[in-house]
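pls design
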C-alpha cells in the first residue's frame, strides 16, 4: 500500500507528523502508561499524545528514553490545561511539562480547550516557545471555526494542527473543510467512539475486508486525510489498531461511512465547557 505505520503528513511549517499515533488519555501514570508507550513503539508507532491534565507525562518520557527508538524519531505532543491558560501561566505550564517529560523540546504543543478570554494570550505564549525552538510545531485542540477565525485574526503564526473529537458519528465536515482550506491539519481524538463499533455498516465492512470494525474506522480516518490517535493500554489492541496498511477502503465505502454522521459527541461541546 501507499502508506506504512511511519508515514507522515507535512504541516504548515514543513515539519512531518505521523498519520497514526497512540493516545494516553486516562492511562494511569506508571506501569500502565509506560507499558502502552513501550508496546506502541515496538509496534512501529512514532507519535505519542499526552497532556498535562493526563498526569502521565513522566511515564511517557521514561518509556521513550528506555526504548531503542531515538528521541528525534518520536513525535511527542502535549497540551496546556484550562486552569493553566494565560501568557505567564502557559510558559510555566510548558516548563513543567517539559521537565516531567525529561526532554529538551516537544514536537507539538496545543491549547487544550478554547477558554474564552484566555486562549489568545495562551497561544501568544506558545508562539514565543516556538520562536525559542522549545516547540517544533504549535496548534490548538477542540477549536471550532469561529474560535479559529478569532485566533487567526490575532496570532502571528497560524495553528498547524487542530485536534478535535471526530469519528463516523461526528464527521465535522464543515470544520474539516475549513481547516483543509487554511492548511491546518485535523487530528481526531476518540476516533473509536468509546468502543461503540457495533454499527451494521461497520460490521458489514469488517467482514468485506477481513478486518475489525475498529480497523475500518481508523483506516477511514487515514484515507480522508485525518491524523488519528486511538487510545489503548493493551498491547494486542495497540497492535491491532496499527494493522491498517495492507488494505484500502473503496471510495464508495468511504462515502457510506461519512453518511453515518449524526453530529453526535461523546465528549464536551467546545462552546459549552465548564472545566
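designed seq:
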Amino acid at each position: 500500500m501507499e502508506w506504512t505505520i511511519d508515514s507522515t503528513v507535512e504541516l504548515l511549517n514543513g515539519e512531518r507528523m505521523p498519520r497514526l499515533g497512540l493516545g494516553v488519555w486516562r492511562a494511569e501514570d506508571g506501569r500502565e502508561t509506560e507499558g502502552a508507550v513501550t508496546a506502541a513503539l515496538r509496534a512501529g508507532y512514532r507519535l505519542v499524545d499526552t497532556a498535562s491534565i493526563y498526569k502521565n507525562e513522566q511515564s511517557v518520557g521514561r518509556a521513550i528514553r528506555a526504548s531503542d527508538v531515538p528521541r528525534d524519531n518520536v513525535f511527542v505532543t502535549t497540551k496546556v490545561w484550562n486552569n493553566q491558560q494565560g501568557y505567564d501561566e502557559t510558559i510555566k505550564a510548558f516548563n513543567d511539562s517539559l521537565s516531567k517529560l525529561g526532554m529538551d523540546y516537544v514536537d507539538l504543543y496545543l491549547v487544550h480547550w478554547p477558554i474564552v478570554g484566555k486562549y489568545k494570550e495562551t497561544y501568544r505564549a506558545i508562539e514565543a516557545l516556538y520562536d525559542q525552538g522549545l516547540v517544533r510545531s504549535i496548534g490548538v485542540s477542540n477549536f471550532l471555526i469561529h474560535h479559529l477565525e478569532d485566533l487567526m485574526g490575532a496570532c502571528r503564526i497560524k495553528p498547524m494542527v487542530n485536534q478535535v473529537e471526530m469519528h463516523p458519528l461526528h464527521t465535522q465536515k464543515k470544520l474539516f473543510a475549513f481547516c483543509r482550506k487554511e492548511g491546518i491539519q485535523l487530528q481526531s481524538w476518540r476516533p473509536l467512539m468509546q468502543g461503540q463499533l457495533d454499527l451494521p455498516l461497520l460490521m458489514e465492512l469488517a467482514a468485506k475486508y477481513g478486518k475489525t470494525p475498529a480497523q475500518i474506522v481508523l483506516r477511514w480516518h487515514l484515507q480522508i486525510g485525518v491524523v488519528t490517535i486511538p487510545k489503548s493500554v493493551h498491547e494486542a489492541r495497540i497492535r491491532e489498531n496499527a494493522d491498517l496498511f495492507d488494505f484500502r477502503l473503496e471510495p464508495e465505502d468511504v462515502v457510506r461511512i461519512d453518511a453515518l454522521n449524526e453530529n453526535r459527541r461523546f465528549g464536551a461541546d467546545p462552546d459549552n465547557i465548564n472545566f
